[in-house]
Write a structure and sequence with these properties.
six-stranded parallel β-sheet; single chain; alpha/beta
Amino acid sequence: MKSKMKLSGQLRSYLRWPLILSILMLVMNIGMYFVDVMAGMWFTLFFAVYVVAAAVLYYRQRPQVINELITFATEYGQVQKHLIQELALPYAVMDSQGKLLWVNKEFTKITGKDTQYHKCIATIFPELTVERLPKNEEETDIDVAYGEKNFRAHVKSVCIDELIQNSEMINTDIKGYFIQALYLFDETELREYMRKFEDETMVTGLLYLDNYDEALESVEEVRRSLLTALVERKINKYFNDLDGLVKRYENDKYIVVMRRSSLNELKEKKFDILEDVKTINIGNEMAVTISMGIGADAGSFAKNSEYAKIAIDLALGRGGDQVVLKDGSKIQYFGGKTQAVEKNTRVKARVKAHALKEFMNTKEKVVVMGHRLPDADSFGAAIGIYRAAKTLNKKAYIVIDNPTSSIIPLMNTFRDNQDYEADMFVNNHEAKEIMDDNTLLVVVDTNKPSITQCEDLLYMAKMIVVLDHHRQGSDTIRNSVLSYIEPYASSASEMVAEILQYFTEGIRIRNVEADSIYAGIMIDTDNFMQKTGVRTFEAAAFLRRCGADVTRVRKLFREDMNDYKARGETIRNAELFRGQFAISECPSDYVDSPTVVGAQAANELLNIVGVKASFVLTEYKGVIYISARAIDEVNVQIIMERMGGGGHLNMAGCQLETVNMEGARNLLKSTLTEMQDGGEI
């Protein structure tokens, strides 16, 4: 076998060089004859001896060289195998399905699995599933853990087709055989240092007292300073125990600085400072509530402060008594279990009314839109803005693409009235044609872009105004020039009624317009039984003075027989889940506006003893709508937010597009179970 082996490559050329150089010596020998014949003869003799010796050495030593090379290669392979076996880095070879073929000593030392262990790697590291292993000579890094240690697993896919083809033991024409090479890098210490670094990172928070003025007014004047001192002491002690720093910069505003580890501890406690502050009572009729906005993971202290400001604005926009954490791009909510406190002052309403008037004066046209599947509140608020625009002699339009049965009677009162233009109501396509740089877009009764009547208008409009009474979420209309969001208001119609009082002197509201706005308040408050405050009745009184007629409104909302039957069917089939949550389905096959009927049924279910919250599911045009209602014991807003929706503390909803009725019902039940067991509701 060895006799058939030949040298090749650089080694072959290197051994032939003595023979090649003999050509140069031959030329030199010829030249010597021209100089001296005797010298040339002596050189010829020397040249002949050199050539013979070089040839003998080349051909006699070649087998020995080959033998030495084979011996070295064999020993070198053993050295390589020994080095890999003794390598300080854990190393293993697997087949394409992750089955272990061979492991080195360090791998055995860490995992306790020897070379006889040939099971799937996922039995040792569950993270290394077959689906996550690389394919086609790719490589990847996967974080894994074993015991108390953390590793970075580097897996590389290696093609062995050439090895199989050169093997005398395997004969196959199939190509595409791969093995997986696995390296484990111990990152336990590195990750521990990273965790410590993250824990030491500073986060910024803003803490506001929601009802500072109202709480002080509810206690005797001589005891007000004591109340303030007790609140400040409670806040300081709470954060000092967490090694945080608190500094008051206004009577009702504090800045908080703490470590990330303290923030994690606060999250585990679910920010119980919210409840601690409420326990302060020195005779004050109203408990003090706080709101916090925390900014973290922004990359700099300045950016954290910006995040904290965004978070506190969001907390206040959602009604206060809660903590909003903006952690990088993620937003989390904590608390928010109490009803927002109604403000007695109307200063904000007057300021917003004047600002709205100024913006309207700068444009020629006003387009008003509410949310999809508009209800009486959305319609009434839109009518109020329409009247404000007409008072300034502006061309105004209301966007309603698919009117529901609940607002068609209201719309007909305007369509049948010759005092109103035929193009007062427009659909989505017509609204897009109307929209230009000289148009003001006013959004009412929603602040979520995704559920507006026509979301495209938000991107077409140069100037947007938002008027809403729903609590804000992370998905909000952010490019508005004026945003008036008051979660304590009963309805958007109530807010618009207040704005109209300050909009301009002697504003004249027609009877049908007053009826529509009044109807919006009446429907959203369930005939003034929910979320009504002093300002709600003041707005209703203003509308009554403008000509609103309760009898006319009641006639407009008389129900169709099918709707009445559907509501009864929904209530009859209700299920009491966990002894306190009423869940039912509203039939939609014989009802024009099943979502409206579902909302009405949800209100009715609250009249049952023991029901703390009601949820009615309705399927409409392939989408599952959930109407959630509560009185005061459960915050249905945070439940619906968990499922992708939102709303108020006692009135909320969501839309599910990727599940059927059974899946939606199971999702609702699992959400209720998870949140109740976790103490969130």
